[in-house]
Amino acid sequence: MKKKISRSQQIPKYDNPIRSTIISYLTALPDYQEGIRKGFPLFTTKELDEIKDNYKDGLTWKDIDKILSAKGIFFKKATFRKYIQERNISKAIGYKNTENGRVAIFPVDTISHINFIQYYYKVIDGEHLDNILETIRDKQISYLEVIENNLVWKDNIYASIFDDICHGDGDTADAIKKALGCRPSDRDKFLKILNDINDKFDKTIRNDIDKFVSQLQKKYLTVFEITDDNQGGQDE
To answer: Are residues 114 and 163 in the same domain?
Structure first.
């Protein structure tokens, strides 16, 4: 007798490319739109985009709880932790200090993933999920879009590369590894290109910036010259 696979085992995990693809198309699916019309507490594309714009540096648990509560979703912190352990949502990507102590920071797409999980467990059935997978099976998505969906700190690859060059956080490389894990030859190819970009910057542009900074360090203003009344410059 074939063992029945539970719903929790069927759901695509956070770092699975299928999950990223479903997240990309979810809000546009007719059945999802129908769920919204019926009053299910699901986020619209506009709402998810606004969250990404308002929390570009990531979300704390307090932020997540506030956003979900405003949508009418009761979400326990214990459930949140369970989802992290089960790889249904991302673990913390950093920490920051607040008046109440150190708090964890989670990716800005955490709400999109919780939204999908809510839809998965409370709205659709197994057959419906199969239909969604069938719908997206033949859809093609560019490498760029998949990589940008896997970025943690920035929402586009240009900003991510610039940030990586300046701070060396490796976000772009990590996103490429996740997005192209199923295409190892292309993954390695684009990682090499990214590495070449960093090398070129170090050998050329970084030297120019260092010279520019060095010249600025050798020039001085008096305290009175940097007051607001003198910001226009002497050439006016």
So the answer is: no
